[in-house]
Design brief:
single chain; 12 strands; TIM Barrel; 2 domains; 8-stranded parallel sheet; alpha/beta; 14 helices; 347 residues; globular; binds glyoxylic acid; binds magnesium ion; two-stranded antiparallel ribbon
Amino acid sequence: MKTPKDFFKPLAIGAPEPMREVPTKLERMIHFLPPHNPKMRTKAQSIADQVDVLLGNLEDAIPADAKEAARAGFIEVAQSVKLNGTGLWTRINSMKSPWIFDDITEIVAAVGNKLDVIMLPMVEGPWDIHYLDQLLAQLEAKHGVSKPIMIHAILETAQGVENVNAIAGASPRMHGMSLGPADLAASRGMKTTRVGGGHPFYGVLEDPQEDQSSRQFFQQDLWHYTVSKMVDACLTYGIKPFYGPFGAFDDEAACEAQFRNAFLQGCVGAWSLHPSQITIAKKVFSPDAGEVLFAKRILEAMPDGTGAVLIDGKMQDDATWKQAKVIVDLAKQVAEKDPDLAAAYGL
Ligand code: GLV
Ligand code: MG
């Protein structure tokens, strides 16, 4: 365990000072671009103009024989794209893969000053973060990178979930974490072939009642436990929790429901793997206008955040003031980017 005095020291001579806090930035969707595909590369600028984060995916879904092309394609996109505030991330290959070392070294050398975050898959424990942390510091020093590249872990193995707190607190370089429901399901031996979302067989059956021939079955959220555990770990360490992928592109309503559960539980965004999911994530991870207007009334009724008042029959006190502030702070960030929502929020 590193002592507090050393925790915020650069890990290499000449590397930038670690950040003390994750920058406040709207990251409602992390949009996955397959950069080995030339057609997708030509769309990169128009996608970057619509999303909060553009991510070049080098890991799963990229065929083994296209890994180098994806890396080179991402570098090309990163060099040419005009970001105007959009985040630039990459998902590199996993720690044990033959590609990870070149992914890290070539990308930091070429575009280290433009890259905000590296998403690291299959994180099992803090040791994975420590390795990447040290290597990034050495590369930042070597290539004159002026701001630390942050690390975002995918929570997608049973061991990773077991170590989630240690991962969240492993380094000041930690940006946040995403749920990886497909790999996690496989790692845990869950019996589902879906990428995120519910399962029709996972639920509870209502109690039997007299004169009732059929009993209702209520489907439950398979991911509730893991999302909650991840949210607690992330917020404990001041980093950001995200829902990950939703694979059923043909079921936008289910995607919206899953994203919304994550949002209500504390997540700040989700992955978009299809253009339709950009719209869904924008809708879900921007707070509801009715909630914002009510939250503003709470803040206005309790200017110093203490005491108790009644608004429309609902009790408000210091704790609800804090809840309201979470919503209004997020609404202010959204309003800066979206004039229509700014008007709806009255901001
Ligand atoms: C994402 O990487 C997942 O495995 O769900
Ligand atoms: Mg995965």
